[in-house]
Amino acid sequence: MSSVLVPQEQDFPRWYQEVIAKAQLAENGPVRGTMVIRPWGYAIWERLEAAIDERIKATGARNAYFPLLIPEAYLRREAEHVEGFSPELAVVTHGGGKQLEEAIVVRPTSETIVNSSFAKWISSYRDLPLLINQWANVVRWELRPRLFLRTSEFLWQEGHTAHATREEAHEYALRILAEVYADAMVEELAIPVFQGRKTEREKFAGAEVSWSCEGVMRDGKALQMGTSHELGQNFARAFDIQFSDRDGELRHVWQTSWGASTRLIGAMIMVHGDDHGLRVPPRLAPVQVVVLVARAGEGVIEAATTLVDDLQRAGVRTELDGNVEVSVGRRIVDHELRGVPIRLELGPRDLAADQVVIARRARAEKDTAALPYVALEIPNMLAQDQAELLAQATALRDGRTRAARSIDDARELASDGFARLPWKAVGAEGENRLAQAGVSVRCLVREDGRPVDDPDAAGVDALVARAY
RNA sequence: CGGGGAGUAGCGCAGUCUGGUAGCGCACCCGGCUGGGGGCCGGGCGGUCGCAGGUUCAAAUCCUGUCUCCCCGACCA
After folding, report:
1. From CA A204, how far away is CA A202, in angstroms rounded?
2. I want to staple A203 with a disulfide (CB 3.0 to 4.6 A). Which of A188, A210, A307, A346 is the partner?
């Protein structure tokens, strides 16, 4: 990470927005706090979405779609849930040209509307488990929005499931956390995450237990990248979701809900981005290789086209940049800003030497390769660069995660990273003290890496940090 | 809501303290030269300085009021 910028906290937002603007990923939308995602950014998102969707389906869940507008009364049915969301609701008061008798809210999340359907769909243990996922946009009227990380409107997937037993719901929630979220973040985004349990203070409104994947951004701040909740029977009671069990008894279902959003694109920018713009992990890059004609010359275009064909046949997403009207420097900068993983430069001089110039975004180096063989080597290089980004992000995370000796110590360390200390040494009271300094307990983890079933047990550590 | 800051050309800014009728970079247009990392030289187009009022011979600049935006904090995927 030689030329990598490690921004100071105060100038970080500026750096971040410049990268986004230059990379043409997003721009401010018409309503404060919303955002527009440009085609290049969306192409990255589409690949990530597909990767997550595939993993979700592997757990047995299926996609469905529910209404955007929810009667306010639905939200009121679960006390903690409505309390948690009320301040950030966008409310529709007019329709059809007149004031509505009862206000309708734009969904901030869909537990209530989904569960009103679940109540009708579920009657027998044979209907369980019911595993539903929805890709949709939701609205939360945030006090202070941040591009990508906390926009008023965002695109996400939200899963909603119903199970016959608490144990089954518990296992499923953890399965989503590990096999869907953590796996996609590591394998696709090349970002390592801490998987842990939320404290009572931090858990989702309406949940019994919340689990999350926490990422470490380049400035040392935490980003909650995905959450999975055990809802217990809270919504089942509120929406009367019951089933006849094998023994003939009528029982309420046990539920989970879980979500991950376009915030993940923000994480990619904040973890992998550098002075020169984005660095998109090869697995997510819409264009993995750009073959750039540095200068026109006899046979150059033909050779470049052949190279593109060879790469495409090898399954590499490749683009030809033969726009010699535009200066080489400008085109190179454009591709760097967009984070294209590998750039091959070809001109008359290279052709004469039977070579190409190869520049790899992940490692900021430029080299030459033999023209006849380079197409064969590229797939392996892409895999290496994917691993390289993960290695860099892992070094970042580990370097910024330190053991703390006390709450005061943790508060110090949280100025630029994560602090880890026994949860027993913190507790609800210590958590409040940290909160006054803008530091929160991101999640609870066990030394042996297993899920935290009992927060008060021995060997449970708190990971604390400042969060976005 | 509390604390800071900013509104001047399409974009980014200087000029404001010490009033004299607006300037720089990028972009754009024209010509030429260049062409392996955001080209160079020359020539152009473009704004009456957020808005309203006041002081003055004269206001981007001073005074009063007002609107908007941004940043930090509180709420949060």
Report:
1. 7
2. A210
